[in-house]
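Anyone able to model this chain together with S-adenosylmethionine?
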Amino acid sequence: MNSLLILGIVLAAIIIASFWWRDASRRRSLPCPTWLASMLDSRWSDALLGTQATLDHIGLQPGQRVLEIGPGPGRLLIPAAKRVLPGGEVVGLDIQPGMIERLKARAAQAGVSNLTTILGDATQPNVLPESVDVIFLCTVLGEIPDREAALLQCYTALKPGGILSITEIFPDPHYQSRATVQRLAESAGFRLQAIHGPWYFFTANFVKA
Ligand SMILES: C[S@@+](CC[C@H](N)C(=O)[O-])C[C@H]1O[C@@H](n2cnc3c(N)ncnc32)[C@H](O)[C@@H]1O
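re: yes, here you go
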């Protein structure tokens, strides 16, 4: 077998597995496994996944109270914690204990002290109503089987005028289009504020009216 054929078979297997994962995630929770976290916090991930551009598009300000749903190992949440200083704080809510442990370890290593974590599900976040200025999700929405319920919880947790920010990156297997993100957010009661970036790497910001 020549190497081109092997490469083709591997690529086809990855594509089939991605489609299966995307489809199965509609019915049950199949989050990005903890062993894949090293792809999110490697030294190339910031450049490849546009970490600083995403944070710019979310538009964080000093003093804000910010919640990230599905922070994983904290690629975005750790620099976000620095951006909301002085006076601000960030909270990371993730469904997997392994991700929370990795996030805590990386935050401690980075000397970040205004970051706390919640182990839980986006559909039952255990966050006080109207207690958060900004909620953001990056490559997470499609991993949540009941996306409508999760966005309703975001609406409840945000202060009036608060911002919901959703970033999607293609070819994440769980990628959600701009139209889908807008439809889901508007169904939960949000109003579109702005969409930054092209279809394959966009951040959509919504306001709680
Ligand atoms: C692909 S990773 C993205 C990590 C991070 N947002 C980033 O962009 O680097 C998806 C994360 O969402 C979390 N997640 C998936 N479903 C969730 C749910 N229902 N509630 C909370 N977190 C969830 C996973 O455990 C994982 O850490």
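Residues 137 and 166 are 5 Å apart (CA to CA).
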